[in-house]
Structure formats: structure tokens, C-alpha cells
Amino acid sequence: MVAGGFGVGKTTFVGAVSEINPLRTEAVMTSASAGIDDLTHTGDKTTTTVAMDFGRITLDQDLILYLFGTPGQDRFWFMWDDLVRGAIGAVVLVDTRRLADCFPAVDYFENSGLPFVIALNGFDGQQPYSPDEVREALQIGPDTPIITTDARHRADAKSTLITLVEHALMARLR
Amino acid sequence: MATPPGGSGNWSYGPVQDHGDGSANPYAYPSPPYRQPYAPQGPGPSPYDQPPAPRIQPVQPQRRTPEPAPAGASNNPLVRPYAMTGGRTRPRYQLAIEALVHTTAQPHQMQGQLPEHQRICHLCREIKSVAEISALLTIPLGVARILVADLAEAGLVAIHQPGGDENAGGQPDVTLLERVLSGLRKL
Predict the structure, then answer these.
(1) Which of A156, A142, A167 is nearest to A88 (CA)?
(2) In which residue ranges is the amino acid composition biased (Pro residues) (chain B) (predicted)?
(3) For labelling alongside A132, which of A152, B11, B144, B157 has CA 20 to 30 A away?
(4) Is residue B89, in this structure, part of any structural domain at all?
(5) Is residue B146 part of a domain?
């Protein structure tokens, strides 16, 4: 899974490593199911559409990795719940200029127990804050990797994914 | 998410209706009023290999009644998405979004199938995930899940559900993680 705030570069990241142009799938949902409305008010529920971009990487003849960018609006938790099952882990992309945007994603993965790494996406090639500063600001424990990346570049995105899978593997073996 | 195709028959379908406390229902699709637009079918020819489907009520494959359907109706955005599914909003199987689908149908078996079913089979001559079917055919994910489940029930597609360690909440096992890691490094 690739998560993070709106406009942080999730689809760019997916597109950088995917072997296909990122595709978009849509789910129809009701606002009631988004945890906004009380379910007793089903009479006036409205439908909306939530879109999700994803890419794929064929790793072997019989092994395909799918990268799902989580819906930008963090309130569509039901889509996240759908994705978490079977997921290896999550990359939480962070724009350090808008650090608070990643809070919901970090909270979500901390609660769900899915291994995650935090990747600081350097806009304009700038990394104004060091991983240590971000770790301090986000109150992230020492076990969770925090790395810098550039979502536009395949090598960076690939290296981020490798960090994530290594982290997931360590978490399983621990 | 990693989905190894050709897994050893991982039909790990959970019960569809039973969502426990109901509060964590991840498939809360809107429920249009249920209608039965299809004539009930008698027991038709069904030499289909039924997958083991625990606690799933078998439903006869539904066929379109001979109502006049304008050409290209399936692409018409004016048709409400769940009209394709006969008003059903839940699939019979709990299909993972990354579950892989591969058609096993011969062209003659596709005759008389719904156009959407035919399009899915056509697409899945090369292996595709449920997510890709939804995206490439521009049908909502929930609808794609239902249609793919129909095809699986009719024996027209094979589904490879992702593996995963049931003891770890369906998370991939260590062997799979190692394969993914090695695959990524070789990219």
C-alpha cells in the first residue's frame, strides 16, 4: 500500500516502479459506510465514488506485486481495511512541509499492525528536515524506518519498496 | 500486495454475509432495491466444476431475458452499475482486490453469457487481478467482484486467491516476503 496525504505523490510513486501506467479503480460507497453518518440515518444516505490508483510489478513468472495508492481522503477507511488484508506493508509518503497530512495514515498503520516505512518525498529535490527530526516530530518508534525518497525516480521508489519488505520480513521474524 | 498465481487451490473464501459485529464491514456498497429482472432458470446444463464454497448458497446462473438491449448498452453510463448484477451488491465469494483471474472458457462456452461476463473472460485470457478488471473495463470494484464470482461459480474462470498466513491475519508468510524481496532487488 502507498499512503499519505492528498497530493503527496502516491500515484507518482506507484507510476515510477509500475510496469503499467497506473490504473484507476472505483468503488461506489455510501457516506454512511464511511463512518461519517450514523447507520440509523440510512434514509438520507448519499452515494459517492472513491477512486484508487494502482500499479503492478511482475517479480517472477508466478509472482505479481500490486501497489495500491490509498484513496486520498483518509476517511475512506473501508477501502484501507480491504487493502490491508494480504498486504505486505505500507509506504507512508510524507511531504515535510505538510507533516500533519500523514498523521491519519501513521495512526492507521500503527493500529492495524501492518508494517510500514515513512518515506520523505523531497519536493524540488529538497529535504528540509532530516529523518531524525521527522521521527522526533511524529513520535515514531526506533523500529520504523524513516527514509528519504524521490517519488519521481524509479530507483528511489524501488529502494523504498526494498526497505519496506526488509522491514516487514524483520517484523515477521522477530 | 503479492499474489502468487498457481497457488495450490487457495479457495480461502470467507463467509460473505457474516461480518461479525457489522461495524467493520469493508464492503458497504449501496443497496439498490432488489429486483428480479431475470426469469428463474430451470436446472440447465451445468457440468461446471463447482469450487468448494463453504456456506455459500448456490444460485443458478442468471441469464438476460430477451428484452431488447441496444448495442453497447454495457458501456452506457446511464445504466446503473448494479443493474449488471441483477441488483446484487455482495459477491458470493470474498474476493481479494488483488486476486488473480484467468479464463478457462472456450469461446463456445461464452455464448449466452452476459456481455459483461464475456468482456471479463476476453480480458482474462491473460491473467488479471480483480482490480485490473475493474479499472480496464471501467466497472466499479464491487460490481467486478460480483461478476467475477459469477464466472468462477460457472466454472468459466479460475481464481487464484492470494496466499497468506491465516494465523497472522492473512499477512504474507516469510517465504513469500523473501521471494518478493529477491524479486525487487533483481528489478
Answers:
(1) A167
(2) 29-55
(3) A152
(4) yes
(5) yes
Using a CB-CB cut-off of 8 Å, the residues of chain B touching A157 are none
Domain containing B169: what range?
A: 78-186
Nearest to A78 among B28, B171, B180 (CB): B28
Angle at B117 between CA A71 and CA A53, to 5 degrees: 15
Q: What is the pLDDT of residues B118-137, one digit of tens each?
A: 999 999 999 999 999 999 99
Put simply, the answer to whether B2 touches A64 (Cβ < 8 Å) is yes
Q: Is residue B144 part of a domain?
A: yes
- CATH number at B103 reads 1.10.10
Asked if B112 reaches chain A (Cβ–Cβ under 8 Å), the answer is: no
Classify residue B168: in a domain, yes or no: yes
Task: Please indicate whether, in this complex, the C-beta atoms of A86 and B25 are within 8 angstroms of each other.
Answer: no
Angle, alpha carbons A1-B99-B162 (nearest 5°): 80
Nearest by CB to A54, from B6, B131, B180: name it. Answer: B131
Domains along the sequence of chain A with CATH: 2-173 (3.40.50.300)
Are A87 and B169 a contacting pair at CB < 8 A?
no
- Taking the C-alpha atoms of residue A2 and residue A5, their distance in angstroms, rounded to an integer, is 10
Residue B30 has pLDDT above 60, yes or no: no
For residue range A61-101, list pLDDT tens digits in order. Answer: 889 999 999 876 656 777 888 888 889 999 999 999 999 99
Number of domains within chain B: 1
